[in-house]
Design a protein that fits this description.
Number of helices of chain A: 0
Radius of gyration of chain A: 13 Å
Oligomer: heterodimer
Order of helices and strands of chain A: EEEEEEEEEEE
Order of helices and strands of chain B: EEEEEEEEEEE
Structural class of chain B: mainly beta
Structural class of chain A: mainly beta
Distance between the termini of chain A: 35 Å
Strand content of chain A: over 45%
Helix content of chain B: under 10%
Radius of gyration of chain B: 13 Å
Helix content of chain A: under 10%
Distance between the termini of chain B: 41 Å
């Protein structure tokens, strides 16, 4: 089934640890995005990629990094996790930037 | 920057009822998307609707770009329609600006 796969589905992480959230799509979409969703704050864009090999900063990029080595994969890395990064993380893609979005199922991350 | 406001914030209906959700935006946009987030957190794109009207089963959406609003209609509501409905508009090619959502509860 075409779509986006995120892993892990949930994770409890000790503060200070490094963590990579994985995102893979099989729709050959050019654009990919990472959002975090927090209660009362809605969805906020962390990083985006318009096409393989390029990335950009969104609304809340601090403490996060991404890479886009190929079309399908867009991992999000927390170099040194802090409790304020406790959130639900969604990966999304669209055929072109600003196009119709498809979302992954999300990763629930708790930093303790 | 562009502002997106959704109303009502909460809506509780009996199964079978019809509902209208509204999304106002403060500046001209070249597209608008409606999403449904189910109670388990999954986000599904419902409509990509820069203008005009689209229908998909019991759901339809209308965007009047010149008046800066969009409406999502749900007819004959079912319990599976429960969740949060978001609208989002682009601020730039890469960033969607999201409304705060309408939380819909359909009671059996």
């Amino acid at each position: 089934i075409a779509g986006i796969t995120q892993a892990p589905t949930s994770q409890i992480l000790a503060a200070g640890r490094r963590m990579t959230l994985r995102c893979t799509q099989d729709m050959r979409h050019n654009a990919m995005y990472w959002y975090r969703q927090d209660l009362g704050l809605g969805l906020r864009l962390i990083h985006y990629s318009n096409t393989a090999g390029t990335t950009g900063k969104g609304e809340v990029p601090d403490g996060y990094s991404v890479s886009r080595a190929n079309t399908d994969d867009f991992p999000l890395t927390l170099a040194s996790a802090v409790p304020s990064q406790t959130s639900v993380y969604f990966c999304a893609s669209s055929p072109e930037t600003g196009g119709i979005y498809t979302f992954g199922s999300g990763t629930r991350l708790t930093v303790v | 920057g562009i502002q997106v406001e959704q109303s009502p914030p909460d809506l509780i209906l009996q199964e079978g009822a019809n509902s209208t959700l509204r999304c106002n935006f403060s500046d001209s946009v070249n597209n608008l998307q409606w999403f449904h987030q189910n109670p388990w957190g999954q986000l599904i794109n419902l409509f990509y609707i820069p203008s005009g009207t689209k229908q998909n089963g019991r759901l339809s959406a209308t965007t009047v770009a010149t008046e800066r609003y969009s409406l999502l209609y749900i007819s004959s509501s079912q319990t599976t329609d429960s969740g949060v409905y978001f609208c989002a508009v682009p601020r730039s090619n890469y960033q969607l600006i999201w409304g705060a959502g309408t939380k819909l509860i359909i009671k059996p």
